[in-house]
Amino acid sequence: MNIISWNCRGASAKGFHTTFLDLNSRYKSNFCILLETHISGKKAKNVIKNLGFDAWCISEAEGFSGGIWCLWKSAFWKVKPILTHKQLVHLEVQWENEDPWFFTAVYGSLQTANRRVLWEMIEDIAANTNGPWCLGGDFNSILSLEDSGGSSNLSIDTTRFLNCINTCGLNDLNFSGPPFTWQRNNVKRRLDRYLSNLDFTDRFKEVGVKHLTKLKSDHLPILLDFQMAHLEEVNKPFRFLAPWVLHEDYNNLVKRSWDNRNNFTQNIANFTQEVKIWNREVFGHIFRKKQRILSRLEGITKNLTFNPNPFLDKLQKELWLEYEGIAVQEEVYWQ
């Protein structure tokens, strides 16, 4: 059981669909929060269905700004919406047959005055909530100088955020991974987080947060893992991979390995032998290649956190494009 929250900066953006499907499949999440989706209405519902979810609660985007999507699979989760607002969605949630608890998805306004309304709403929810409660998302505010790398003075908004947390009896959940969840040029902040009350951590003693690898959006996805268990890739037996046909060299491989003078069985045997070598040396196993790219992106994210580097910025963009191409190949693989 886990939850992914991601300010994706547009759910209809090029590459979003394959990127999100891959992210979600790697962490086996059947409850996701998407923020700043930038689309609403019928178009939003069509996108959600294509992401593999059959249930949702939405705070609609206003034009091309905002939007909170809470998505889940009803086979695993029972969800009762309690409050929907442009800055938060408050839910009662239940995993399978366990006892229900409360979750609030947050997208803090870019305007300080509007975030004051958010802090007041969270305090109102706290006053009327009994039992385990967790909040997660993009709060668009920091809690300490550490959240900005010491490069910014604390504002009145930070004071209000801290007062809200203390009033509500909330704690900032510990995390692993890069220290900042948002970056634009050389400005970095930890804007995305999960908070919870003591009832929540008493019940879910192994819960933890992981800041994941940056994927195109200027925000990192953040994972709420209830067991902090990391799923490893399972090796599968060799078989024909549909994505091979997308490679520019595939037709040449077929021509080299297929001889009309041989019978069908012999040609299949020749092709199988050739394609194993080609898969390893030319095509590259898509799962291993994807993992290498993600590892490189993770390393670049860590380096750029503390050291601006135009070369790494350029390499990051190139690797994102390569990652998107592999995500498309993997999508074909699973069809």
Automatic annotation (TrEMBL):
InterPro entries according to UniProt: Endo/exonu/phosph_ase_sf, Endo/exonuclease/phosphatase
Example GO molecular function: catalytic activity
Pfam families: Exo_endo_phos
Source species, domain of life: Eukaryota
Endonuclease/exonuclease/phosphatase domain boundaries: 4-219
This protein's name: Endonuclease/exonuclease/phosphatase domain-containing protein
Taxonomy of the source species: Eukaryota, Viridiplantae, Streptophyta, Embryophyta, Tracheophyta
